[in-house]
Amino acid sequence: MRLAGKVCIVTGAASGIGLASAQLFAVEGATVVSADLDGTPYRVDVGDEAETLSLAAAAVAEHGRIDVLFNNAGIAGVGDLEETSLELWEQVMRVNARGVFLMSRAVVPTMIAQRSGSIVNMSSAIAETGLARRVSYAASKGAVLALTKSMQVDLAPHGVRVNALLPGTIMTPFVERYLKESYADPEEGRRSIRSRQLGGELGTPEDVAYAALYLASDESRFVLGSGLVVDGGLSAGKA
Ligand SMILES: NC(=O)c1ccc[n+]([C@@H]2O[C@H](COP(=O)([O-])OP(=O)(O)OC[C@H]3O[C@@H](n4cnc5c(N)ncnc54)[C@H](O)[C@@H]3O)[C@@H](O)[C@H]2O)c1
Questions:
Q1: Active site residue 137
Q2: From the CB of 120, is ligand 1 less than 6 Å away?
């Protein structure tokens, strides 16, 4: 029961990593506020300021506190500079970067008043290593990593920790969609992604959920402002 008694908000909790994390957090004793555009008990568009404020208020009204915010909601954006329309750029930045900013701003007054809290922000290995045709997505995830460190400096004196996750390729509906969009033969795409991995395997949503659990729990009390890489060796080097 590594999260016993903790109230945890998980965004993007209807699918993939968010769903696996919400389930794992509940097994570990948390009261989970699962939020997504739809398909979860709580509705939120993380890019909408009023909706983020309502979600934070509902969590406090119903459960009395907020111990953990897992800013997991995110969308993909495929395209190099010329392929990326301004509309796609703004859509990706709105969910992935502005969403983390707005959700965090909505919960932070509660965490400061409690003098405790853990915010886990979903970045990506792409924040540190370039990948073809991902300009909007890479920029958004780089922003999340920088935002994490900046937030941590400001929030450390209030007892609030802020860390980021940097996953590699994790098999979720998100990646299945990307394989269909980017490769004529998705199986060839899967093989090509697998060949980048030192371990030869792609990750599962549970691989990332366990990392989120660690950062959410008090076990990581001495971990502040870090980016935890969960990528099967993708960024460690080439075999
Ligand atoms: N799958 C990977 O390989 C991978 C790698 C690195 C980082 N990530 C990041 O992990 C996070 C989760 O990805 P996943 O692979 O589980 O994707 P997914 O598509 O399976 O799940 C993402 C969830 O976010 C929700 N969402 C999208 N826009 C939203 C919004 N405006 N407000 C609230 N919810 C919204 C979706 O409805 C969906 O349920 C994303 O931030 C993604 O960028 C994924």
A1: yes
A2: no
Locate the ligand 1 atom nearest the alpha carbon of residue 169 and give its number: 3
Q: Where are the domains of the chain?
A: 7-168+204-224, 171-202
Helices (H), the chain: 16-27, 49-63, 86-93, 99-114, 135-155, 173-182, 186-195, 205-216
d(CA 214, CA 118): 11
Q: What topology does CATH give the domain 7-168+204-224?
A: Rossmann fold (3.40.50)
Query: How many angstroms is it from 98 CA to the middle of ligand 1?
Result: 14
The reported pTM is: 0.98
Residue in 54, 75, 104, 201 to alter for ligand 1 test, most ligand atoms within 8 A of Cβ: 75
Selecting among 137, 178, 210, 214, the annotated active-site residue is 137
Nearest CA-CA partner of 9 in 83, 140, 117, 96:
117
Q: Given 3-state DSSP classes, what are the helix, strand and coil percentages for the chain, each rounded to the nearest 5?
A: 50, 15, 35
Q: Which of 214, 11, 216 is nearest to 98 (CA)?
A: 11
CA of 36 to the centre of ligand 1 (A): 10
Give the tens place of pLDDT for each residue, 160-216.
999 999 999 999 998 988 888 888 898 998 998 898 899 899 999 999 999 999 999
Q: What is the pLDDT of residues 121-138, one digit of tens each?
A: 999 999 999 999 999 999
